[in-house]
Design goal:
The protein is an alpha/beta fold. It is built from 12 helices and 19 strands. Helix 6 packs parallel to helix 7. The longest helix has 26 residues. The structure holds zinc ion. The site of zinc ion has 4 residues, from loops.
Length: 437
């Protein structure tokens, strides 16, 4: 037999027939998958980029993407979700989380008391709670060990083993001996046996090696400790311990960049924070004591800031001295926040969740409003700015054609009353409905 002028033997003809059948099957499967749509009818829709609200808008989702946004859209197949009595907005982004930590972590360091297997289970639970509270993307900034459980949870979600938020992880952070995340007060014998909470790197060679190690393990970005923690703050002057020189920061930023990664720096303020910004980090985390000089440099260099203010409130039942110390910190933090807003620093919403119960990110949203940010600006910070921080602003943080179908809905007008985020009615992540009350 002849096909397109060629002699074809019957055996080859069967092979061709089978190939055609297979191609037709593939076409059928893909076309079926493509036509599975969800039409969301939104009563109010927040344009997080323009900071405006539109009424009665439809969102058409196909697979894991938004394919159209407009009035009176038609569904070819699939289902309709009626959110005409709700406010719809893109899934929120928490730019500072710890999925393998629970609020008791500082009094009970998990490396001493929990197996990493158990901590992975905790991270699984945390990621679910975070998603159900409306956060469809998180930037997870180290977990005090946990043997890369954060990476495991991220990969399990990405492979579809369970529904969870998009996770961007830093893996282990990099600190110095005696600094933040180095357990102190242990007898030397025990100290030598205990796993540390971060990678201790005391010279630039070790810092570079630590970054390569993290990259090999699969992290998305690098976290460094540019200042110490609360125990390192001078209680007279409030100056935090500066952990890195500008040159050391630059070495790490350059090494990270070589692998296409950004550097996030834990920094409270003072010399350490200045070195971090001057050395070129992508973001400052916490920044309790950011003065005019540092904030001006951040504006000039385009450095993002994740303030995480709620977790520094004094603990209930703390000693009088500790409460006084925390109240001073809270007052300084508020001052830094208000000055940063005035100067136009890029403020990305972040909770430090793990230090506070998972699923309660709304607390930080309310704090930001308390300190003078408008609810609409808080929403912008937790969507558009967060997406820019993780360099995903072309597919996350907005409800727009071509963007990922990460969509949430709440009762009332969250753009006027931030308390609306205490209860989330609808969550879609990557095109899958995770919650629909
Ligand atoms: Zn943190």
């Amino acid at each position: 037999m002849k096909l397109y002028g060629q002699n074809i033997k019957p055996k080859n003809l069967d092979r061709i027939k089978n190939k055609i059948k297979f191609i037709l099957y593939l076409l059928l499967v893909t076309s079926t998958a493509q036509t599975q749509q969800t039409l969301i009818r939104a009563g109010r829709l927040i344009d997080t980029n323009q900071k405006t609200v539109k009424n009665n808008i439809d969102i058409l989702v196909e697979g894991n993407r938004i394919i159209e946004v407009g009035k009176n859209l038609k569904l070819t197949s699939g289902k309709t979700v009626d959110l005409r009595d709700k406010t719809v907005l893109p899934g929120l982004i928490d730019s500072h989380t710890h999925i393998c930590l629970t609020p008791d972590y500082s009094s009970n360091p998990p490396v001493l008391y929990k197996t990493n297997t158990y901590r992975t289970m905790e991270a699984f639970k945390a990621s679910k709670q975070i998603l159900m509270s409306g956060f469809t993307s998180i930037r997870d900034v180290d977990n005090e060990g946990a043997d890369m459980a954060d990476i495991a949870v991220r990969d399990a979600i990405n492979k579809g083993m369970f529904v969870g938020p998009r996770i961007f992880v830093s893996g282990w952070a990099i600190s110095i001996t005696g600094g933040h995340m180095n357990l102190t007060g242990l007898r030397p014998y025990v100290d030598r046996k205990v796993e540390q909470l971060a990678i201790m790197a005391d010279n630039s060679d070790d810092m570079v090696a630590a970054i390569r190690d993290q990259r090999k393990a699969g992290v998305d970005f690098i976290k460094i400790y540019a200042t110490g923690t609360l125990r390192h703050i001078n209680r007279e002057t409030l100056e935090p311990l500066s952990q890195l020189t500008k040159a050391e920061v630059e070495i790490m930023v350059n090494e990270a960049r070589r692998w296409g990664m950004d550097v996030a720096a834990h920094a409270y303020g003072g010399t350490g924070a200045y070195h971090a910004v001057d050395g070129g980090v992508h973001s400052l985390e916490h920044g309790l004591f950011l003065d005019n000089k540092i904030l001006s440099l951040m504006v000039k260099k385009g450095t993002f800031w994740c303030p995480t203010m709620t977790v520094y409130l004094p603990d209930e039942g703390a000693s009088e001295a500790d409460t006084r110390f925390h109240n001073r910190i809270v007052a300084e933090h508020k001052k830094s926040f208000q000055l940063a807003m005035k100067k136009g620093v890029k403020i990305a919403f972040g909770t430090d969740i793990g230090s506070m119960p998972h699923g309660e990110g709304w607390r930080e949203m309310e704090r930001m409003v308390d300190y003078g940010m408008s609810p609409m600006d808080v929403i912008h910070s937790a969507t558009v700015v967060g997406a820019k921080l993780i360099r995903k602003n072309d597919e996350l943080g907005q409800i727009k054609q071509g963007y990922f179908a990460d969509i949430i809905a709440v009762e009332g007008n969250p753009d006027q009353n931030i308390k609306a985020f205490r209860s989330i009615n609808f969550v879609m992540v990557n095109g899958t409905i995770a919650k629909n009350d």
